[in-house]
Design goal:
alpha/beta, D-Maltodextrin-Binding Protein, domain 2, 2 domains, 13 strands, 31% helix
Length: 318
Amino acid sequence: MRKRLHAVVLCAAAFCMMLVLAGCSGGSTYQPELKDATVTTPTIGQADTLRVGVNTEKSPLAGMGSEKIIGVDVDIAAALADELGLKLSIVDVGSDPEEALAQGKVDIVMGIDSSDTNNFWLSEEYLPTGVALFALTSSNAGVPDAASKPKVAAQVSSKSAWAVSNEFGDEALVSTTNLADAFAQLEAGKVKYVASDALIGLYAAHRAGLDTTVVALMAKPSGYCVGVAKDNTALQTTITDALKTLVDQGMVDVIEMKWLGQSLDFSNTPLTAGATSAKATGADAEAPAGEGAEGEAPAADAAPAADAAPAEPAPAAA
């Protein structure tokens, strides 16, 4: 009964959310009626508008599609703005969200990993993520260990590739130019697992039409947060309340379903044996953060890069 009720709630939320987001696709002129604004200047920099900073190099959180910025974060930002009774302005702040906040170019920034060090306030996580092991659902694959000598495909020089070598040994790693190739290896039966950032991997598998399962996480999960300037406590409170409403009402679940084919919940996902070992958690063993474009391998002495999603996100649904 609870599952049926949850499905009904999600369907209703999906209908409402698709109406809210219809304008994002360019295929409809529908605009939802704005609620009364709950916040104004100087809490936000521009009256009646929420200015949201994203990084368009972090697909599927944000990327370019049909000559506009689209993605998971863009849809969540639209829902946030609607909840606050504000119009929405999306700004590409690249890899320097701190400067954009400090210079007042944006009111908030999105897609900030909770595990990163930042000089601004962070909300609770609105999207979970972590290095995940994917397998074809039909394979009924279990959680591998080093003794089983698994074959795991991962994007070359990525955090996930580092995690595979770190836990299972270099012989377990099958390096691919990009994440799409890794999932192609999985589909062809050449490997049993793909290692990837969980959110990016779900997006890539969904786009490829593959029925995959996250069988385990290779590290304790982190998540993505909203960033606000440290001294803007009024906006921090406003964003906290609005995010909670979106999560509680199932709106974030609906957006996850749209982009990833499922909502994200890793609360019952097992960890690999190495995820909690001293080898995985020691300061000297931690993989440095970084970004890498699809198909590009950083220099040999560069830090491991984050997995890259396909270059262009799927267009927003009408």
